[in-house]
Amino acid sequence: MRHGCKVNHLSRTHAHRVAMLSNMATSLIMHKRIETTVAKAKALRVYVEPLISRSKEDSTHNRRIVFSYLHSKEAVNELFREVSQKVAQRPGGYTRILKTGIRHGDNSEMAIIELVDYNENMLKETSTKKAKSTRRSRAKKAEAAPAAAAEVAEAQPVAEAPKAE
């Protein structure tokens, strides 16, 4: 029974699961975005977000801990040099999971997991949005409708019936 067990085993042994998550985390750090299944993306988020939090403070101890998870010098350097600079002001939530539909081969749900501060399209959308949007109530529209109808009636002269002589 799995009472209280919150780890998604992903139908793999412990060693296989750890190796897979390490490889996926390395790919995510290097490429900033990867496509995978929704279950793997959720497991990867739990795996990689603490590593990104550690990268905010660049120390030998933190580098060694992150290296023990990633096993890639290039990924550790990328994480501590570039990614940590982008997420320095963010208190958490460094990844975003976007569902993309199903895979035709086995009907599994697919998703894209990406680092939040590296998606230029979403950053442009949030910066161009209005700061405050106004809401209009229906009461004002209901009052304006009869007044507008009266104005239209006054503006158009009524055609008079011809006079009988």
Defining traits:
elongated; alpha+beta; 6 helices; about 160 residues; 3-stranded antiparallel β-sheet; 3 strands; 50s Ribosomal Protein L17, Chain: A
What is the fold's blueprint, element by element?
Blueprint: H1 14-31, E1 33-37, H2 38-55, H3 60-70, H4 73-86, E2 95-102, E3 109-115, H5 120-128, H6 138-155
Antiparallel strand pairs: 1-3, 2-3
Helix pairs in contact: 1-2, 1-4, 3-4
Sheet with the most strands, sense and barrel status: 3 strands, antiparallel
Helix/strand-derived class?
A: alpha+beta
Q: What are the secondary-structure elements, in order, as H or E?
A: HEHHHEEHH
What is the spatial order of strands in the main beta sheet?
Answer: 1-3-2
Q: What fraction strand?
A: 5-15%
- The average pLDDT score comes to 87
Distance between the termini: 103 Å
Structure annotation, total helices: 6
- The level of helicity is 40-55%
User: What is the CATH superfamily classification of one domain?
Assistant: Ribosomal protein L17
Q: The CATH topology of one domain is what?
A: 50s Ribosomal Protein L17, Chain: A
CATH class of one domain: Alpha Beta
* Unreliably modeled segments: none
Architecture per CATH nomenclature, i.e. the level-2 architecture of one domain: Alpha-Beta Complex
Q: Cα-atom Rg, whole angstroms? A: 29 Å
- What's the number of extended β-strand segments? 3
Describe the protein.
- Strand 2 and strand 3 form a beta hairpin.
- About 15% of the residues are buried.
- The chain has helices at about 15-30, 40-55, 60-70, 75-85, 120-130, 140-155, and strands at about 35, 95-100, 110-115.
- It has 6 helices and 3 strands.
- Helix 1 packs across helix 2 (about 40-55), helix 1 (about 15-30) crosses helix 4 and helix 3 packs across helix 4 (about 75-85).
- It is an alpha+beta fold.
- Strands 1-3-2 form a 3-stranded antiparallel beta sheet.
- It has a domain at about 15-120: 50s Ribosomal Protein L17, Chain: A.
